[in-house]
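Recall the central idea of this unit: under ordinary conditions, the amino acid sequence of a chain determines the structure it adopts. In this exercise we apply that idea directly, starting from the sequence alone.
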Amino acid sequence: MQRTLALLFAASLALVLLVPNTSGAQTRKRNTTAKPTRATTPPPKTAEVTRAGATRVADEIKRLTKFIYLLGSIAKGLEGVDDAAKRNEASPAILEQTQKSKQTVRASIQTLREDLDKLETDFRGTPELQRYYISLAGVAQGAATAEDLAAANKFDLAGRNLLGVINRLTDVLLGMR
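Accordingly, the structure predicted from this sequence is:
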């Protein structure tokens, strides 16, 4: 009997030690009241801002590509008229129209440069796009060089310079993926 009592005592002691005591485990009270929400609007997501910036870069690439395509044939025509003028084979009406065309091309290149300058400024001023600004910096200067070449009646070289601007914009766009 003493042996049975000792066995029963050992089993009880083992049971007490093995079963965890959870009565004091939860000491923090649960708060079920809802926290007040803030009335401010959340900041725009980085992905959305980056996507919008990439769209703007893509739009500039499209505009420049279309412009260079058109400039190619216009530049050939302008060169042809300039050659004819040197040989005194061009009429005054054609020379006048050529001067208007040259002014239009120069104004278009100036508009492109201004738009690229604004793109650079926007990338520099937007925190989510600043990391891409390093690659983008200088595209407006490339367009300004094209503008100077067009002012010197070097339209073919101006177009080639704008191709370099497109290449740089394409590199920026690839970096934004």
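The chain is about 75% helix and 0% strand.
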